[in-house]
């Protein structure tokens, strides 16, 4: 059996930049897996997957809201912290959010490469023809919102599941950080889940001196329900008790 004799595997990222311009970069990425022999733990063998061309863009016009909505669905990602899991994000609100975002980074790859990722080889045409955001698949995204003076926050980082662990997420974060620091903005926060904390730590993020955490405003007249003299609001699939307002005289 092929799995016999292997006790450990470590993933290394290999990224090669072959083309860059002011608003776009073409890079080759792959996952390199190191396997350790069961019989000789000091002997390692490198197994490299094929190089994949990906297109990194910072041009807001390359982000099509409908494609981004589809990417959210594929990545099981929500733009809302308290989502209604039965409905996707409103496309008009998404379009407005994108227009008011200060940094947009999108990643594209050829659809047939994504579909045939498990195969050992690809057609030579796939590598000779350039990746283009106008005709290829949106596979990664991230954005930042800033006051352009002091602070900025990174939101909605996502990479299609089949292309994860290839360094694409780090490419997106580094691109966003570079664009913000070029504007002399260094107070950069990342809104992430508990599972994403180690990833952002590897990208250079850490806790601040205030030990800050994210709290969401939940008191809304439209979503509140009343039962037994108490008010509740829905947060995803949970009901949160709304404490009564304190009347001051």
Automatic annotation (TrEMBL):
Source superkingdom: Eukaryota
Residues annotated as signal peptide: none
GO molecular function terms attached to this record: N-acetyltransferase activity
Pfam families, per the entry: Acetyltransf_1
Domain N-acetyltransferase: 89-220
UniProt-listed InterPro entries: Acyl_CoA_acyltransferase, GNAT_dom, GNPNAT1-like
Full protein name: N-acetyltransferase domain-containing protein
Organism: Vicia faba
């Amino acid at each position: 059996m092929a799995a016999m004799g292997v006790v450990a595997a470590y993933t290394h990222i290999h990224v090669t930049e072959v083309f860059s311009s002011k608003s776009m970069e073409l890079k080759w990425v792959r996952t390199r897996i190191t396997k350790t022999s069961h019989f000789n733990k000091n002997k390692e063998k490198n197994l490299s997957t094929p190089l994949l061309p990906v297109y990194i863009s910072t041009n807001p016009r390359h982000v099509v809201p409908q494609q981004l909505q589809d990417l959210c669905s594929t990545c099981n990602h929500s733009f809302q912290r308290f989502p209604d899991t039965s409905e996707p994000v409103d496309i008009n609100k998404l379009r407005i959010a994108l227009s008011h975002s200060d940094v947009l980074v999108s990643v594209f790859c050829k659809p047939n490469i994504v579909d045939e990722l498990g195969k050992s080889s690809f057609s030579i045409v796939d590598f000779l023809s350039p990746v283009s955001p106008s005709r290829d698949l949106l596979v990664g995204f991230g954005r930042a919102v800033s006051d352009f003076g002091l602070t900025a926050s990174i939101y909605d980082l996502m990479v299609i599941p089949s292309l994860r662990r290839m360094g694409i997420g780090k490419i997106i974060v580094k691109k966003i950080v570079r664009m913000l620091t070029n504007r002399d903005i260094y107070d950069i926060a990342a809104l992430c889940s508990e599972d994403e904390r180690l990833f952002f730590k590897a990208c250079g993020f850490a806790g601040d001196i205030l030990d800050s955490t994210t709290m969401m405003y939940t008191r809304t007249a439209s979503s509140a329900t009343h039962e037994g003299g108490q008010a509740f609001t829905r947060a995803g699939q949970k009901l949160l008790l709304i404490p009564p307002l304190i009347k001051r005289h």
